[in-house]
């Protein structure tokens, strides 16, 4: 496999960066909102897990 | 629900613990040796196996993969079983994992001492060992996932997500960075070259820090700190947020190792921006750890384990603030290539990794041997000695780094450089000495720990299989209050694995794929040609001896560097460099435009004993290059390998290569044998076989050194770098 130039131009490549960053950021915001609103009892139970044995 | 009885496997934990301690001592002693060699070149002992260039990778591989590596497995095998309420999936896999890992370490020590190195930092091990590493990592993965899948606790505690992310990311990093083409049983060339190789290397290298030195230890922190303090972690919500942020952002930070180099500017900017963003999730982890101790700080006064863990987490916080600061271009312009970087590394390594490992050892050895720690007082002494060691290590290195950078950049009133490079080295020798004292103090603390743990083991009764009981998982998962997304993924470790992989792959793909747009990112320079066979052989000797560990080959576009070293380095100059050799440190001067600066005779005298030409040089002697015959039988294989990688040697050139090699070697040798200075030197040096010098390795190395950076010397300066 010789080194072939898979992509010829760099212009317009930022669409990939932008879209993946948006995907992650939206996921991140959604996750943060969930974490904010999660059930307190469940959170406390998970916190105790290492101490349960 | 029926309660099931089972046993935790402590034997495997004990084995990893002992291995971690053993290799920790070995690796740190290697570190002490190289620290001393820097100011006492005689401590290289004139032998190839003990020279700085070979021992330094032994040190880094030992402390990272042997000391921390076994430490990771010790912590994972202990905590995973208890968090899953299940014994490790398969005892045989556990044993295979352990013994193959130690075998890799021994193979590493031997091969690195013999000079079999890929020339890429923290990935020096050659291709056969790379394959074994992949296989043992798969074994570890099967064992770990098998355990998770047969768990009796449906929730996946945060520590386990960190272990999952570690496993998948290290697999990705190792495989991608290790693409190499073998040309002999123990040697290969990097698939990548020049700028692309640099980017892959530091995408790998920085994420080795992230996913080998950080994420598994964060997982361990999330288990052992609550256990030792007997309090739950401060905020589970915070742990979720910072976990995902950390593993996504960390991957992009790699280019911060390449600021102001020939890496394309957009990639450098991405590296800087993401490195700064990384402060948030990193400090999320630190704060989560420290706040866990709210209301329990009096325990820290009593318990050495907590002392170690608290300082570890604090050093983690310091290092993860300093790192982003060093990633800012204006700061990096000063710190890159200096000892400041070394200071930064060791705050993290000695403080975070070292102290966390010690804290965990002091916690679980007594637990597994069912006896209290032999001496809390000794452990506390270890703590203070270790802390002093870290301080005496880091502060001289900060001082040295700042001093070097300042001295390199100083101009006189008339506009010439104020200091010769060698002056900047001799000036910081006192700091190097102090640093080695700090390191020695740190190791003496480790010896205290070895004694303390030994006495504990002797006084205790080992619990090889620790009884436990728990109900099996119900068929239908229980729900808690409101259903939620993270709960969904916590119950599904495979999905967690896949999503983590997607998360970490994104950053790499986005930075790496566009950099392979050779046309625009690496403007072709017509005058840059492949190395001649003799120069290629010489380059491989340069790599073998680890020259890149002290000498950079990357002139940055700063006035002081251009005046000192020559025209700044262009991306197109490195297209045939498999692997790249830009270096990370200037213990010695940059060599990017070394070609033609000194006559062959200068190099001949310098490599034999650098003090022949440079008074007070700290560089080791290389006498074996004058008696070793160059291995020319392997030249055709090297040429063919390079051709496969796309280097444009003419078809069939492998048959012709040795003839060209010997013609070039003869030319250099004739010049040397007719030189009076050389004849005089040869008459008093028994290492020099002047009659047969044409066949020796030194000729190849001189050919390479005289070639570096000369290709563009005839070129007209381009008006901009990016137009084709």
Which tags fit this structure?
heterodimer; A: about 55 residues; mainly alpha; B: about 725 residues; Cytochrome Bc1 Complex, Chain D, domain 2; globular; disordered C terminus
What does this structure look like?
Chain A has helices at 14-37, 40-47. Chain A has 53 residues and is an all-alpha fold. Chain A starts with 13 loop residues before the first helix and ends in a 6-residue tail after the last helix. With 724 residues, chain B is an all-alpha fold. Chain B has a domain at 533-707: Cytochrome c-like domain (Cytochrome Bc1 Complex, Chain D, domain 2, Orthogonal Bundle), CATH 1.10.760.10. Chain B is built from 26 helices and four strands. In chain B, a hairpin with a 5-residue loop joins strand 2 (180-182) and strand 3. In chain B, helix 5 (158-177) packs antiparallel against helix 6 (194-229), helix 9 packs antiparallel against helix 11 and helix 11 (304-326) packs antiparallel against helix 13. Classes of the chains: A mainly alpha (53), B mainly alpha (724). The interface between A and B is large, with 37 and 46 residues.
Instruction: Pick out the low-confidence regions of chain B.
Output: 720-724
Whole-angstrom Rg of chain A: 21 Å
Radius of gyration of chain B: 27 Å
Secondary-structure-derived class of chain A: mainly alpha
- Number of H- or I-type helical stretches of chain B: 26
Termini distance of chain B? 72 Å
Mean pLDDT of chain A: 76
Counted by DSSP, the helix tally of chain A is: 2
Give start-end ranges of low-pLDDT stretches of chain A.
Answer: none
How would you sum up the global shape of chain B?
A: globular
Output the structural class of chain B.
mainly alpha
Average pLDDT of chain B:
93
The 3D shape of chain A can be described as: elongated
| Terminus-to-terminus distance of chain A | 54 Å
Please name the CATH topology of the domain at 533-707 in chain B: Cytochrome Bc1 Complex, Chain D, domain 2
- Helix share, percent of chain B: 55-70%
Largest interface: which pair? A-B, 37 and 46 residues
Number of DSSP E strands of chain B = 4
Q: Say how many strands of chain A there are.
A: 0
Strand order of the largest sheet of chain B: 1-4
């Amino acid at each position: 496999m010789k080194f072939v130039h898979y992509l010829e131009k760099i212009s317009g490549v930022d669409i990939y960066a932008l879209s993946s960053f948006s995907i992650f950021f939206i996921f991140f915001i959604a996750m943060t909102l969930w974490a904010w609103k999660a059930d307190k009892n469940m959170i406390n139970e998970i916190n105790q897990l290492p101490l349960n044995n | 629900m029926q309660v099931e009885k089972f046993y935790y496997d402590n034997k495997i934990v004990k084995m990893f613990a002992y291995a971690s301690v053993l290799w920790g001592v070995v690796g740190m002693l290697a570190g002490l040796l190289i620290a001393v060699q820097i100011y006492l070149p005689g401590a290289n002992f004139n032998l190839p196996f003990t020279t700085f260039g070979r021992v330094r990778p032994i040190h880094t591989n030992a402390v990272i993969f042997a000391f921390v590596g076994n430490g990771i497995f010790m912590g994972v095998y202990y905590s995973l079983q208890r968090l899953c309420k299940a014994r490790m999936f398969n005892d045989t896999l556990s044993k295979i994992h352990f013994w193959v890992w130690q075998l890799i370490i021994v193979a590493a020590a031997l091969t690195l001492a013999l000079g079999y190195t890929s020339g890429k930092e923290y990935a020096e091990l050659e291709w056969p060992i790379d394959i074994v590493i992949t296989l043992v990592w798969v074994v570890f993965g099967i064992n770990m996932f098998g355990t998770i899948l047969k768990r009796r606790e449906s929730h996946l505690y945060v520590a386990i997500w960190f272990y999952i992310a570690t496993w998948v990311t290290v697999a990705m990093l190792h495989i991608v960075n290790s693409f190499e083409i073998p040309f002999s049983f123990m040697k290969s060339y990097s698939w990548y070259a020049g700028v692309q190789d640099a980017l892959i290397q530091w995408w790998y290298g920085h994420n080795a820090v992230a996913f080998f030195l950080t994420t598994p230890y964060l997982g361990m922190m999330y288990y052992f700190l609550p256990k030792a303090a007997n309090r739950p972690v401060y905020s589970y919500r915070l742990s979720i947020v910072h976990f995902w942020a950390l593993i996504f952002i960390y991957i992009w930070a790699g280019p911060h190792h390449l600021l102001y180099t020939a890496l394309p500017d957009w990639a450098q900017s991405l590296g800087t921006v993401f490195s700064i963003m990384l402060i948030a999730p990193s400090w999320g982890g630190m704060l989560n750890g420290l706040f866990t101790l709210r209301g329990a700080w009096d325990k820290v006064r009593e318990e050495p384990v907590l002392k170690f863990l608290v300082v570890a987490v604090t050093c983690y916080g310091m290092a993860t603030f300093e790192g982003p600061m060093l990633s800012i271009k204006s700061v990096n312009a000063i710190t890159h290539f200096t000892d400041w970087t070394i200071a930064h590394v060791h705050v993290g390594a000695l403080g975070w990794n070292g102290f966390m490992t010690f804290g965990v050892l002091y916690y679980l050895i007594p637990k597994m041997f069912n006896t209290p720690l032999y001496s809390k007082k000794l452990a506390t002494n270890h703590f203070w000695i270790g802390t002093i060691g870290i301080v005496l290590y880091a502060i001289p290195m900060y001082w040295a780094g700042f001093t070097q950078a300042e001295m390199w950049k100083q101009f006189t009133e008339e506009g010439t450089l104020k200091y010769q490079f060698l002056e900047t080295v001799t000036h910081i020798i006192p700091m190097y000495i102090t640093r080695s004292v700090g390191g020695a103090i740190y190791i003496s603390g480790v010896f205290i720990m070895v004694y303390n743990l030994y006495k504990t083991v002797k006084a205790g009764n080992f619990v090889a299989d620790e009884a436990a009981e728990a109900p099996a998982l119900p068929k239908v998962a229980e729900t808690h209050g409101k259903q939620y997304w993270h709960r969904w993924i916590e119950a599904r470790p495979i999905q967690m694995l896949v999503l983590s992989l997607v998360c970490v792959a994104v950053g790499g793909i986005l930075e790496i794929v566009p950099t392979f747009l050779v046309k625009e990112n690496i403007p072709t320079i017509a005058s840059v040609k492949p190395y001649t066979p003799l120069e290629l052989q010489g380059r491989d000797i340069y790599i073998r001896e680890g020259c890149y560990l002290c000498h950079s080959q990357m002139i940055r576009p700063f006035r002081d560097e251009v005046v000192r070293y020559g025209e700044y380095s262009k991306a197109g100059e490195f297209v045939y460099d498999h692997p790249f050799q830009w270096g990370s440190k200037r213990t010695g001067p940059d060599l990017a435009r070394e070609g033609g600066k000194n006559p062959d005779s200068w190099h001949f005298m310098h490599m034999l004993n650098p003090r022949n030409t440079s008074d007070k040089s700290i560089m080791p002697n290389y006498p074996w290059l004058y008696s070793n015959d160059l291995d020319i039988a392997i030249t055709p294989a090297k040429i063919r390998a390079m051709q496969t990688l796309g280097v444009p040697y003419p078809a069939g050139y492998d048959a012709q290569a040795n003839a060209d090699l010997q013609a070039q070697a003869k030319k250099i040798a004739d010049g040397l044998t007719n030189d009076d200075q050389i004849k005089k030197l040869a008459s008093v040096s028994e290492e020099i076989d002047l009659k047969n010098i044409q066949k020796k390795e030194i000729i190849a190395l001189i050919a390479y050194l005289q070639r570096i950076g000369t290709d563009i010397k005839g070129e007209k300066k381009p008006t901009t770098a990016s137009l084709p």
